[in-house]
Design goal:
Number of strands: 15
Order of helices and strands: EHEHEEHEEEHEHEHEEEHEEHEH
Strand content: 25-35%
Mean pLDDT: 92
Radius of gyration: 22 Å
Largest sheet: 6 strands, mixed
Structural class: alpha/beta
Length: 310
């Protein structure tokens, strides 16, 4: 396996900035790819050790392109995550004034984060989506658009100027990025972990989603993300992308996954990995019997019964 990480490029994306915060990135060749799909496919094909891609932002939620790629195709696993605070700059060719701007571009995930700013300052500008924010900057450099929303750090890379900086509609906006590799042993448990899965129901019936959620609730496992995604099998056919607190080696999480495997048509394990915010997992559910110690004690009791030692 080549010692390289693929990432959503070109150079100068927020993805690259977030990737370089990982200590191991300094020991890998970092290779930009034109899309999330191509970066993940490089891992599937053995051309890269791992791929680093955006998966969620605090304004719009899950990045559907990434979620759909993890749902479908050859299975991949998440090993790390990074949170990056996001503010945009309006990048233009030198000499461009605000009144000159008729077209703007950026990654689709950026639009909801600058929508109000656009309405106030450039209400008549036409929006066109780019493969990434940095690619939008490149397109401005080439003269295809008048301005791009990107990181201020991308200006020098593409010979542009930051006409406006600090642009954001929501204070403290963040994007979550994940390091994705081929399936292997999950990252070691830290006590501040997250587990990601995808669930497919056996059939559509009243209370079907509640049945899935009960598997988490009765074991005191807190959900951090729940998003439905179409399966492509027709209107009304959905799978569920879920992030839950805890690690697969935690008894409560392992039992939850066991229960889900029994009742679901399919379960795809996307990994257990350290939380970027380092918040330790805690049991918030007041139901008795949901502490780690109680799960371990109950499992030990069953084992003793099986051995005739009860």
């Amino acid at each position: 396996m080549p010692a390289s990480y693929a990432y959503l490029g070109p150079e100068g994306t927020f993805t690259e900035v977030a990737l370089r915060t990982l200590p191991e990135a300094a020991t890998r060749e970092l290779i930009p790819y034109v899309s999330v799909q191509s970066a993940l496919d490089a891992v599937r094909a053995g051309e890269a050790e791992a791929a680093f891609v955006p998966i969620e932002n605090s304004v719009e939620g899950g990045i559907t392109t990434t979620l759909d790629e993890l749902v479908a195709g050859t299975p991949l696993m998440i090993y790390r995550e990074v949170l990056l605070s996001i503010t945009f700059a309006l990048l233009v060719r030198p000499g461009t004034k605000l009144s000159d701007i008729k077209t703007v571009t950026a990654h689709p995930a950026a639009q909801p984060q600058v929508r109000n700013w656009l309405k106030q300052h450039l209400p008549d500008a036409a929006w066109e989506s780019a493969a990434s924010n940095a690619d939008g900057a490149r397109l401005v450099q080439e003269g295809r658009y008048d301005a791009a929303f990107a990181g201020e750090f991308a200006a020098a890379r593409y010979g542009l100027e930051a006409l406006e900086t600090g642009i954001h509609d929501a204070e403290n906006a963040q994007t979550r990025f994940v390091l994705v590799g081929r399936p292997a042993r999950p990252a070691a448990r830290t006590g501040a972990d997250k587990t990601s899965i995808v669930l497919w129901q056996r059939d559509d019936h009243p209370g079907g989603l509640r049945d899935l959620l009960d598997e988490f609730a009765t074991r005191g496992v807190n959900l951090m993300l729940l998003q439905s995604r179409p399966t492509g099998a027709g209107i009304g056919n959905y799978c569920f992308c879920i992030d839950a607190e805890g690690h697969i080696s935690d008894r409560r999480v392992a039992e939850t996954l066991t229960g889900l495997k029994r009742i679901c048509l399919q379960v795809r394990f996307l990994g257990s990995y350290p939380r970027a915010d380092l918040q330790p997992t805690e049991v918030r559910d007041p139901l008795p019997g949901t502490s780690d110690a109680e799960f371990v004690s109950a499992a030990d009791w069953v084992a003793r019964c099986q051995d005739g030692r009860f």
